[in-house]
Design a protein that fits this description.
By secondary structure, this protein is α/β, with parallel strands linked by helices. The protein has helices at residues 21-33, 49-52, 58-69, 72-81, 96-108, 126-132, 145-153, 177-185, 210-213, 232-241, 254-260, 279-286, 299-303, 315-327, 333-336, 341-349; strands spanning 6-12, 38-44, 85-90, 113-118, 139-142, 158-160, 192-198, 218-224, 245-248, 263-266, 291-294, 309-312. A six-stranded parallel sheet has the order 2-1-3-4-5-6, with helices on both faces. Strand 7, helix 9 and strand 8 form a beta-alpha-beta unit. Helix 8 (177-185) packs across helix 11 (254-260). The longest helix is centred in the N-terminal third of the chain and has 13 residues, at 21-33.
């Protein structure tokens, strides 16, 4: 009987509810990796700062996360598991401190292959670039071609990875289902529904949805996660006053909300506030919704010329793009079909080494 290899997944500061992009990646990737071995998942403790919204410097975060990877429990679990591969999902993506943490994990795992996943692009200053040449993991996975070329130029063994989507859970609406779901969720049946799913935080640029809510015949729906910050109350009041329908908190049946919509909008303009390949974009595509989004992250190189996807450079253009997609809807389900968690799991588990 062949012994299944041990795969060890290390994630940082994941809350109880998987309603955040990073947390979803941790959960879905861990689940998909079980096809290739026995998976042990370790999540470092959630920061107390996240509950009280106090600001924290990058140095403070780096020190805290370094202590977490040197935790006795983690070190003991790694040595007991004796994994063939350790997958480290860096919450801070490619920073000098994250690279040091990856080396600590590799040393503790005593020679295991170390794969580091960076979900957000980061700019490295020249001291970090110099030091990085001695700290690269066995495989670095990034989301954009620009990151790939830059890190490869610094000596990293690197490949592109994008997030995945559950193509069974997220699917197009069946005949009559859209109307039934709108009645269930209290959404007007006779209007065009424009949807966004994300955080109720300042960097998400949710104010860009307000002009759509003001238009006759359009219902703007925003589903917000449990993540909040100091500005969240103000943004909530602003959206409600502008006529936006808010659905708040973790929704196990979020796929239903996608199926009741007519168009998906992604107004976030910076990968400082979203992962480079937003999960909600893939979920909307799998649900066959046309997409209007800011030109951000991995979207231009992946979907820049795709039918049913309009990428723009300003909030005003975003509103016009939604209006166009509502007038001339196009199918997008086909765009999501090459993005599966199974393919990502194969890549990180080393089943097919790039």
């Amino acid at each position: 009987m062949t012994t299944r290899p041990a795969l060890f997944l290390v994630a940082e500061e994941v809350g109880e509810l998987a309603d955040e992009g990073y947390a979803k990646v941790v959960a879905e990737l861990g689940r998909a990796m079980t096809r290739h071995g026995t998976v042990v998942t370790h999540v470092t403790p959630q920061s107390e700062r996240e509950s009280d919204c106090r600001p924290e410097s990058r140095l403070q975060a780096g020190v805290r996360r370094m202590r977490a990877v040197m935790n006795r429990t983690l070190r003991s679990k790694l040595r007991e598991a004796r994994p063939s591969t350790v997958v480290y999902l860096s919450r801070s993506s490619i920073t000098l401190s994250a690279l040091v943490r990856s080396r600590v994990l590799k040393s503790t795992a005593r020679g295991a292959r170390l794969v580091m996943v960076a979900l957000q692009p980061r700019r490295m200053r020249w001291p970090s670039k110099l030091a990085s040449r001695f700290l690269w993991p066995d495989l670095l996975l990034v989301s954009t071609t620009d990151e790939l070329h830059k890190t490869r130029g610094l000596g990293a063994k690197v490949d592109r990875m994008v997030t995945g989507v559950d193509l069974d859970r997220f699917r197009p609406a069946q005949p009559g289902e859209k109307t039934a779901l709108r009645e269930k969720w209290g959404i007007p049946v006779e209007t065009s529904v424009v949807l966004h799913v994300g955080h109720l935080t300042e960097g998400r640029n949710l104010e860009a949805v307000l002009p759509l809510a003001e238009r006759a015949g359009i219902t703007a729906v925003v589903v917000t996660s449990g993540q909040r910050e100091r500005a969240s109350d103000r943004i909530e009041q602003q959206l409600r006053a502008g006529g936006v329908r808010l659905i708040q908190g973790f929704l196990p049946d979020i796929a239903e909300i996608y199926r009741l919509a007519d168009c998906y909008i992604f107004p976030t303009a910076s990968t400082d506030y979203a992962i480079a390949m937003p999960l909600s974009i893939l979920e909307a595509m799998a649900s066959d919704l046309p997409i209007a989004a800011m030109r951000v992250g991995a979207l231009p190189e992946r979907f820049g010329n795709a039918d049913g996807v309009l990428l723009v450079d300003s909030p005003a253009e975003l509103v016009d793009a939604v209006a166009r997609l509502l007038r001339e809807p196009q199918s997008t389900r086909r765009l999501s079909e090459s993005y599966s968690w199974a393919a990502v799991a194969e890549q990180v588990a080393g089943v097919r080494d790039p």
